[in-house]
Each structure stands twice: as structure tokens, then as C-alpha cells.
Amino acid sequence: MPSLPEILHRTFFRALSLLSPAGQAALLRHVFDWLHRTPDPWQLATDSYEQDKYRTTLKHLPVRRYRRIIDVGCSEGVFTHVLAVTYPDAEIIGVDVSERALARARERVPQDGRVRFIRADILTHRSDQRFDLVFCSETLYYLGRRERLRQASAQLSELLVPDGVLVAVHPWPEADRLHHYLDSHAALSRLTGQVYTATPRPFAVTVYGTRTAPPPS
Questions:
Q1: Domain at 4-210: CATH code
Q2: Strand pairing of 91-96 and 115-119?
Q3: Which residues neighbour 22 within 8 Å (Cβ) at sequence distance 6 or greater?
Q4: Is the pLDDT of residue 113 over 90?
Q5: Which of 101, 97, 98 is CA-nearest to residue 109?
Q6: What are the residue ranges spanned by the domains of the chain?
Q7: Burial class for 129, CB neighbours closer than 10 Å (0-12, 13-18, 19+)
Q8: Its domain of life (predicted)?
């Protein structure tokens, strides 16, 4: 059962989704810049729960070479740094709405030419690149109502190359609702998924691939 602060938190962000996509994105930038007024507001770099979640997430990935990776909602780049170490030959982009968070991410992750950070949001960003691996962790619940979640699912699917992999990680049981929109998207096919309940904050990891088009009849 969600706590009262968590319910109020979700209600606030659902109210923001009544704005236009551009208006919602602009307000989210201000909100997350404010939340990042102090470093690492969610203790992503120090919380053992977060570190275990990162390790668990990576175990679900199909074993293959990933040349281009994008971390959607990267915050201060803690998980982006994990990706940079795990995939030393990959080009990696971290995306977040907060420039204040991104400034710290650029300090955290070595700027060796293959890792970069850009300010953008999942609803309005149009990337000129496609990626072998897309991560979306602890992000979708900020988008609010159903139409925005459908829009985000479409945006995430468009980031993938034809044989790409999308990984979604969110609190459970809320993940059932959030990942439903990914399950329903015509371009995505669920490869695997698992719920982890033996933890103070249960979460679900769901992995998608691009759906193969049926052969012409």
C-alpha cells in the first residue's frame, strides 16, 4: 500500500500531465532542477538498494554487443557511469530534463568522447540516432495520465534500432500499470520480466525487443 506522501507525489505529477506536452516538459525541468538543489537527492550513488537494483537490471540483458546506449532519465549519471564501465566500447548518451543534474553527471562520468549528456525530455525529444540498448528506469510515473504514457511508449520504441533492446525498471506493483503501455505498443515485444519482492522497495525489470514484422501474405 503506497504511503500518503507517495500518493501525493504521484497526484502532483499526474496533475502536471493536464498541460500540453511542451508545457509539462517545461514545468518538469523546473521541478527537477529544484529537486537537485542538493546533490544526489535520492542517494542513487550511496543507497545499497539502488546499487543492487543496477546489478539486477544488468543481469537481464541479452548477451550481445551494444554499440549505442541511451539512459533516459539519467539524473546525475550514477547508472550511466555503471553502463560506461560495463560497456567500455559503447557510445552512451544520458538524457535528463534537469540541467543541474546533468552538470553533476558530467563531473561524475569521464568525458572521453564516447559518453555525453543532453537535456531533453521523453515526450518532446526527437533523436537523430537509434540505439541498440535503451534504459528507462524510475521515470514513467512522472508522466501522469494514460495518454502521456502511450506517447512515451511510442517515443521509446522509436529510439530503437530494428533488433534493439528496451529495459524498463519501476516500482512494483505500479510497474504493472506503467509497463502495460509498453506491452501494448505494436512495435515492442516483451522478451522477459521479473518482479523482485525480497527487498524494502519491490521493483520489476521488464525487457523488450523490437517486434518482427509479419511476412507479406
A1: 3.40.50.150
A2: parallel
A3: 124
A4: no
A5: 101
A6: 4-210
A7: exposed
A8: Bacteria
